[in-house]
């Protein structure tokens, strides 16, 4: 890529990032609640509940401009890589990391792709449910990625983030957002205990994230 | 009218400056760390500075400024209201319509002074069409609760609030071109009554008015606030078409409505298990926490003026 093209490209990315964060604020008045962790430029994996395409935009709108520049959302390659336009939006505009959930070739191994991003010193936004949750359950069981990444790079902090209301702002299959107030609750870091089994850790991380929900659905 | 507006703004400026000085003296004398009441007091006064500044700007732009300002207040209130209530995925289009169609259309009716449709658009047409759309979607889970919450949300946040700029459309003989002052009177008296109830409550409050709904409201606060706000209304009669006695009476009625509005808002918050409507204004909670009294007072004030003072 020529120098000018690269410059234009970086500028475009910055404009998109600032623009989307501003949009998220205007529409949802989003406000971070730091409940157990603090904003920091430490390398992190933010893991969150997933109900809407807007989730990672909302989460990254809560980060500082500096952190946002090095934080990438992990997105499904078989969805976002389907057409050139989608790939351009996901990879170039939103600087997401695309992984293939039904990978076959060794170079498609999602863990290897995510580790290579971490090894550049960047942070990740991960949705360990693996897909957008369309059920009545508040949170689906976690997939293994979170455990594998933490075992491979134990120095990276795992921060649970509860995204509130985004499923009502932009439900699956809709493209116009309803402007409801949103919050993102950032919890205390989770680490794999010595000798902890995969499933035990994943269930514990799951429970930690669920416990951050500031307004659990009432039974009435 | 410029002259009257200037007097009102200078008056507010003096009151707020006094409040800031008193709060600063109290904070300087109080033991550290400051009590939460004192911190909250300072936050509230600072927020009032911002709100008065915004109001002043809106008044400066006259009819444009006030219509846009109250449309934005409707937007913020509706957002807080709907956020608190239960909705389902199938409500998406109704919710979009509330923000994207009902707010702009209602304020367009205000702008064009189309009184006949302004008073019935929400309580008749929206009330019938909104549940119809929900029913067409076929999702009957908690149906009545969902549509009731949505209808109430637009009634409170859009219909009632839009009566404030609608005051500009009234023709009061001998008061032509001065309708902005009606809005100033309404806001200063009702919000003043809130502040006075707060002060009387903090100073003399002993007997709770309604412990199950709002533990902070007391009989002493209510009576002290209403009496002093009625006096304030009489003092401000020079900017209105009312005589001092009429102004005191009108002030009493709208402040009583304001008090009831605060009570209803508290009951809704209690029902939904939250303390504040939102987090828009530092020290005040959300927009609805500040405007609940104004919202209830506005339609009543509008109709009093319309019935008794227009031809």
Concise synopsis of the structure shown:
The complex is a heterodimer of chains A (220) and B (311). Chain A has helices at residues 3-28, 55-61, 65-69, 77-80, 84-93, 110-118, 145-152, 166-169, 198-210, and strands spanning 31-34, 44-48, 71-76, 97-99, 123-126, 157-164, 183-186.
Keyphrases for this structure?
heterodimer; A: 220 residues; alpha/beta; 7-stranded mixed beta sheet; 9 helices; 39% helix; globular; B: 311 residues; mainly alpha; two-stranded antiparallel ribbon; 76% helix
Descriptive account of the structure:
The complex is a heterodimer of chains A (220) and B (311). Chain A is globular, with a radius of gyration of 17 Å. Helix content of chain A is 39%, strand content 15%. Chain A has a 7-stranded mixed beta sheet, sandwiched between helices. By secondary structure, chain A is of the alpha/beta class. Chain A contains 9 helices and 7 strands. In chain B, 76% of the residues lie in helices and 3% in strands. Chain B has helices at 2-29, 36-60, 62-84, 92-111, 115-118, 121-137, 143-166, 180-204, 219-235, 244-272, 287-309; strands at residues 208-210, 214-218. The radius of gyration of chain B is 20 Å and the shape is globular. The two termini of chain B are 22 Å apart. The mean pLDDT of chain B is 92.
């Amino acid at each position: 890529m020529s120098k000018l093209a690269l410059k234009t490209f970086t500028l475009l990315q910055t404009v998109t990032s600032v623009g989307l964060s501003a949009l998220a604020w205007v529409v949802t008045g989003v406000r971070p609640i730091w409940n157990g962790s603090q904003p920091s430029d430490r390398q992190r994996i933010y893991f969150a509940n997933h109900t809407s395409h807007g989730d990672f935009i909302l989460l990254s709108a809560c980060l500082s401009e500096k952190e946002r520049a090095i934080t990438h959302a992990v997105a499904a390659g078989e969805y976002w890589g389907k057409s050139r336009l989608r790939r351009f939006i996901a990879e170039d505009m939103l600087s997401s990391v695309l992984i293939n959930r039904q990978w076959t070739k060794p170079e498609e191994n999602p863990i290897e792709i995510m580790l290579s991003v971490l090894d550049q010193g960047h942070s990740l936004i991960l949705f360990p449910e693996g897909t957008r949750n369309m059920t009545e359950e508040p949170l689906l069981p976690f997939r293994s990625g979170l455990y594998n990444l933490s075992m491979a790079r134990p120095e990276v902090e795992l921060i649970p983030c509860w995204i509130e209301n985004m499923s009502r702002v932009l439900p699956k299959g809709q493209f116009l957002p309803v402007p409801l107030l949103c919050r993102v609750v950032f919890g205390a870091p989770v680490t794999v205990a010595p000798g902890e089994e995969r499933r035990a850790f994943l269930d514990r991380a799951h429970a930690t994230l669920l416990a951050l929900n500031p307004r659990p659905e009432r039974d009435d | 009218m410029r002259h009257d507006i200037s007097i009102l703004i200078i008056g507010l400026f003096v009151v707020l400056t006094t409040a800031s000085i008193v709060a600063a003296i109290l904070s300087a004398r109080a033991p550290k760390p400051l009590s939460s009441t004192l911190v909250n007091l300072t936050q509230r006064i600072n927020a009032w500075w911002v709100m008065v500044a915004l109001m002043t700007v809106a008044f400066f732009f006259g009819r444009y400024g006030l219509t846009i300002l109250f449309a934005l207040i409707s937007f913020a209130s509706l957002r807080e209201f709907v956020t608190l209530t239960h909705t389902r995925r199938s409500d998406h289009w109704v919710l979009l319509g509330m923000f994207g169609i009902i707010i702009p259309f209602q304020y367009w009716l205000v702008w064009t002074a189309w009184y006949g449709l302004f008073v019935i658009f929400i309580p008749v047409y929206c009330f019938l069409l909104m549940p119809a759309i929900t029913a067409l979607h076929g999702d009957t889970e908690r149906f009545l609760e969902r549509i009731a919450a949505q209808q109430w949300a637009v009634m409170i946040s859009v219909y009632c609030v839009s009566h404030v700029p609608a005051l500009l459309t009234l023709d009061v003989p001998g008061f032509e071109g001065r309708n902005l002052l009606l809005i100033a009177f309404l806001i200063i008296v009702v919000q003043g009554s809130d502040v006075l109830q707060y002060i009387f409550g903090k100073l003399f409050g002993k007997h709770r008015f309604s412990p199950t709904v709002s533990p902070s409201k007391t009989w002493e606060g209510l009576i002290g606030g209403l009496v002093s706000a009625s006096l304030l209304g009489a003092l401000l009669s020079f900017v209105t078409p009312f005589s001092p006695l009429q102004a005191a009476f009108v002030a009493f009625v709208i402040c009583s409505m304001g008090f009831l509005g605060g009570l209803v808002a508290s009951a809704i918050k209690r029902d939904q298990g939250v303390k504040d409507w939102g987090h828009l204004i530092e020290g005040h909670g959300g927009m609805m926490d500040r405007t609940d009294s104004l919202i209830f007072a506005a339609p009543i004030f509008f109709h009093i003026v319309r019935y008794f003072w227009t031809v």
